[in-house]
Specification:
With 136 residues, the protein is an all-alpha fold. 51% of the residues lie in helices and 0% in strands. The longest helix has 16 residues. 10% of the residues are buried.
Length: 136
């Protein structure tokens, strides 16, 4: 009985093999020609692979586009005072990201305030932005 999908014994490139230096050198000799073909495809208005050719040229010339990690945005919101330490920690943990030690200390302090001060004396919600951070 034949099976469909999944890894089949003996398929694929054997582990530990690499492209030989000779093959790499031979391929690199055609770099200019390959780039010329990509440029030609990109400049052909009705070509179905025009966008892909442009993406390949940009990636080879400038590297892949980088997206700012979610953690940076959440931490920046905390630093700018747009998010409390509690909310920032909860958001980082929900994303499966590590909470920096300094942010954990702010979290601990906010939790102490939230748990030890009667609710009617807490002037803001736990998820509101905290006061500005002290600067040294």
């Amino acid at each position: 009985m034949t099976t469909h999908g999944g890894k089949r014994a003996g398929s694929g490139r054997p582990k530990g093999t690499t492209i030989s230096a000779e093959l790499r050198e031979a391929a690199q000799k055609h770099t200019d020609d390959a780039l010329a073909v990509l440029v030609e495809v990109m400049q052909t208005p009705d070509h179905p692979h025009r966008l892909k050719a442009a993406e390949l040229i940009l990636t080879r010339g400038h590297g892949a586009a980088r997206e700012e990690p979610v953690s940076v945005e959440i931490i920046n919101q905390f630093i700018d005072g747009r998010r409390s330490a509690i909310a920032a920690c909860l958001m980082l943990e929900a994303e499966g990201l590590r909470v920096p030690d300094i942010l954990r200390r702010y979290f601990d302090n906010e939790m102490k305030i939230a748990c030890h001060v009667p609710a009617h004396k807490v002037s803001r919600s736990l998820f509101d932005a905290p006061e500005k951070l002290p600067r040294s």
